[in-house]
């Protein structure tokens, strides 16, 4: 009777021992991290393929287009299909959000926020919901891309695997970068693009120590998706004429135009969100309202639907007038912003590439009319427009430069796009400071401007550093009684409190004993000699803010009080706080550089 039980226990112990050995090997070996990154890349590639296939089938079924034709490249769409699919798709997305709020489910965290604030921790359940909403949004025809869903599922898979292996914080962040970067590499069939997407946008730093896992994951994801159905968003460009020095200056000017347009689009997104809120429609119904607007726009041109991959191929070589290009550019940007502002799920990566291509083509017409002798290749303008507008909205100048390089195979064009992208990035940082993702986080109250790890700083709070239950004394206690209660050497600082335990100030024991006191005097209440009665720390304050408060108060010790009641709960010294901050900063720097 007991043999099966003993066997079961033995099997569990063996599995636990194997798991422990595996975790130890992964944590101690760089080669093992590369192997895990390859697994993550393969899984991310499978996720990309599955989401792409679902959306392609939805477009064929809903809009009746041929399977080999992209939705945005269709000549026209049936009004009944657009006015049915888009509102109903929006309603489905809105009701899923409403269900999550009613169930009080936690908000999904994207890879950038996870790596910046949570040490790479992402929940697979919430991420699957986001991916489902993204598939519904794009499948219904909303003007958003699947790339945010790709990165979400890639990052979530990597995070879940890393947590199962109990990886260190920096290794978990690296693995999330591998998952998200691998997914982008698979989407565009561009491993270099995916690798730099991981470094620039998800991890927030370049490091040779991180290069092996990142490139391995990007390559594995690309090969997996190509082997199944081909890269969903692959971009093919014709050969480009060599660029002269003057052409580079013209492309930089295009980059500055893209910066202005990108910043304007991001600010417009906040205005549109407020506009939908002003309709007083329930939040769950707003995506359906946005769907109605999108359906009306789709009757003018289907190019506003979906991410725009088909349309970019259609417009690349087409002879379009400046008025047509400007109209398409305005419609595409408006459709994408309306989609996101109303509540559809998706990304702006490929939408900004399409809008940038239109901008570049329009810019080429202007340059040809104004400076015909320079003979600037329109394809160079199109590729630069794609790269620079994407840099303005998404970020990552090297990511976009390598996308252009992998699309054209032309180093000369890539050099011109790099110069323009750097100009765009600098202009956006100087005038705005956010990418579209971090801007939306800013609107929710977060202050991060990238994926650099600041979560450790927020975790290192006064509550973690303070000494609990510090020595206290009622503020009405006389100086003589204080000396009797706290002789020299018994304590350095004592906190004066009122009858309810609320903070009244700090009393330095040496100072209290140094004050003159006649033989028959009690010296008055100790609160009269207490320092900093209006200055204290709160337990939720992070260490960097605490150090600034120490500096402003010019003191080496502060009391810690409850924010609401003012009751004293601890004491913190500046030297200890500074030492812990330096230790954590050093550890975070080692993580960024791939150190131990």
Explain this structure.
Strand 2 (about 470-475), helix 21 and strand 3 form a beta-alpha-beta unit. Helices cover about 65% and strands about 5% of the residues. It has a 3-stranded antiparallel sheet with strand order 1-6-5. Strands 2-3-4 form a 3-stranded mixed sheet. The chain has helices at about 5-30, 30-65, 80-100, 110-115, 125-140, 145-165, 170-190, 190-205, 210-230, 245-280, 285-300, 310-315, 320-340, 350-370, 380-395, 395-410, 410-430, 435-445, 455-460, 460-465, 480-485, 510-515, 545-555, 575-595; strands at about 465-470, 470-475, 495, 505-510, 555-560, 570-575. The chain is built from 24 helices and 6 strands.
Strand order of the largest sheet: 1-6-5
The amount of beta strand, in percent, is under 5%
Give the number of helices: 24
Termini gap: 50 Å
Largest sheet: 3 strands, antiparallel
| Content-based structural category | mainly alpha
Radius of gyration: 30 Å
- Within the CATH hierarchy, at the fold level, what is the topology of the largest domain? Clc chloride channel
Order of helices and strands: HHHHHHHHHHHHHHHHHHHHEEHEEHHEEH
Helix content: 55-70%
- Molecular shape: elongated
Specify the CATH architecture of the largest domain: Orthogonal Bundle
- Count the beta strands: 6
How would you summarize this macromolecular structure in one to three sentences?
This protein is mainly alpha-helical and 596 residues long.
Q: Secondary structure elements and their pairing?
A:
Layout: H1 3-28, H2 30-63, H3 79-102, H4 111-117, H5 124-140, H6 147-164, H7 169-188, H8 191-203, H9 208-228, H10 245-278, H11 286-300, H12 309-316, H13 322-342, H14 349-370, H15 378-393, H16 397-408, H17 411-431, H18 436-443, H19 455-459, H20 462-465, E1 467-468, E2 472-474, H21 479-485, E3 493-497, E4 503-508, H22 509-514, H23 543-553, E5 557-561, E6 568-573, H24 574-593
Parallel strand pairs: 2-3
Antiparallel strand pairs: 1-6, 3-4, 5-6
Helix pairs in contact: 1-2, 2-5, 2-6, 2-7, 2-9, 3-5, 3-11, 5-6, 6-7, 7-8, 7-9, 8-9, 8-16, 10-13, 10-15, 10-17, 11-13, 12-14, 13-14, 14-15, 15-16, 15-17, 16-17, 23-24
């Amino acid at each position: 009777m007991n043999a099966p039980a003993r066997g079961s226990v033995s099997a569990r112990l063996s599995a636990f021992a194997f798991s422990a050995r595996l975790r130890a090997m992964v944590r101690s070996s760089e080669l093992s991290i590369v192997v895990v990154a390859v697994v993550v890349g393969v899984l991310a590639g499978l996720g990309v393929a599955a989401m792409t296939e679902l959306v392609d089938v939805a477009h064929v079924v809903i809009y009746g287009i041929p399977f080999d034709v992209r939705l945005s490249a269709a000549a026209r769409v049936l009004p009944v299909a657009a006015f049915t699919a888009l509102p109903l798709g929006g309603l489905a997305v809105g009701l899923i959000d409403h269900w999550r709020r009613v169930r009080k489910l936690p908000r999904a965290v994207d890879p950038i926020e996870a790596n910046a604030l949570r040490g790479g921790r992402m929940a697979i359940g919430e991420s699957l919901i986001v991916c489902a909403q993204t598939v519904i949004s794009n499948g219904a025809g909303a003007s958003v891309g699947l790339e945010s869903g790709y990165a979400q599922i890639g990052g979530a898979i990597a995070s879940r695997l890393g947590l199962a292996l109990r990886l260190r914080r920096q290794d978990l962040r690296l693995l999330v970068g591998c998952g998200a970067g691998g997914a982008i590499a698979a989407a565009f069939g561009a491993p270099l693009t995916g690798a730099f997407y991981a470094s620039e946008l998800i991890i927030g730093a370049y490091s040779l120590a991180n290069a092996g896992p990142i490139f391995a994951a990007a390559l594995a994801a690309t090969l997996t998706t190509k082997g199944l159905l081909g890269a969903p968003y692959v971009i093919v460009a014709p050969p480009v004429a060599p660029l002269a020095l003057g052409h580079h200056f013209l492309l930089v000017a295009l980059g500055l135009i893209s910066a202005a347009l990108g910043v304007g689009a991001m600010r417009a997104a906040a205005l549109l969100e407020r506009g939908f809120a002003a309709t007083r429609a329930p939040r769950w119904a707003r995506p359906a309202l946005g769907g109605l607007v999108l359906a009306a726009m789709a009757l003018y041109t289907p190019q506003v639907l979906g991410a725009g991959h088909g349309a970019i191929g259609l417009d690349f070589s087409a002879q379009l007038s400046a008025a047509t290009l400007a109209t398409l550019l305005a419609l595409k940007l408006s459709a994408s912003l309306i989609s996101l502002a109303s509540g559809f799920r998706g990304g702006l990566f490929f939408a900004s590439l399409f809008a940038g291509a239109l901008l570049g083509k329009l810019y080429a017409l202007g340059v040809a009319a104004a400076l015909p002798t320079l003979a600037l290749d329109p394809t160079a303008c199109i590729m630069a427009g794609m790269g620079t507008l994407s840099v303005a909205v998404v970020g990552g100048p090297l990511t976009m430069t390598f996308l252009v390089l992998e699309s054209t195979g032309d180093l000369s064009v890539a050099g011109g796009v790099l110069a323009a992208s750097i100009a765009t990035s600098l202009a956006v940082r100087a005038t705005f400071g956010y990418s579209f993702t971090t801007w939306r986080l800013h609107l929710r109250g977060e202050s991060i401007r990238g994926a650099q790890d600041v979560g450790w700083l927020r975790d290192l709070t006064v509550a973690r550093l303070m000494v609990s239950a510090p020595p206290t004394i009622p503020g009405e206690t006389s100086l003589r009684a204080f000396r009797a209660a706290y002789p020299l050497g018994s304590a350095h600082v004592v906190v004066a409190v009122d009858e309810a335990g609320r903070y009244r100030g700090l009393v330095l024991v040496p100072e209290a004993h140094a004050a003159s006191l006649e033989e028959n005097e009690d010296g008055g209440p100790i609160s009269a000699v207490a320092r900093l009665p209006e200055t204290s720390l709160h337990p939720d304050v992070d260490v960097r803010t605490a150090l600034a408060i120490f500096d402003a108060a010019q003191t080496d010790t502060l009391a810690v009080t409850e924010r609401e009641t003012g009751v004293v709960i601890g004491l913190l010294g500046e030297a200890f706080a500074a030492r812990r901050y330096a230790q954590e900063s050093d550890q975070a720097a080692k993580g960024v550089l791939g150190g131990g």
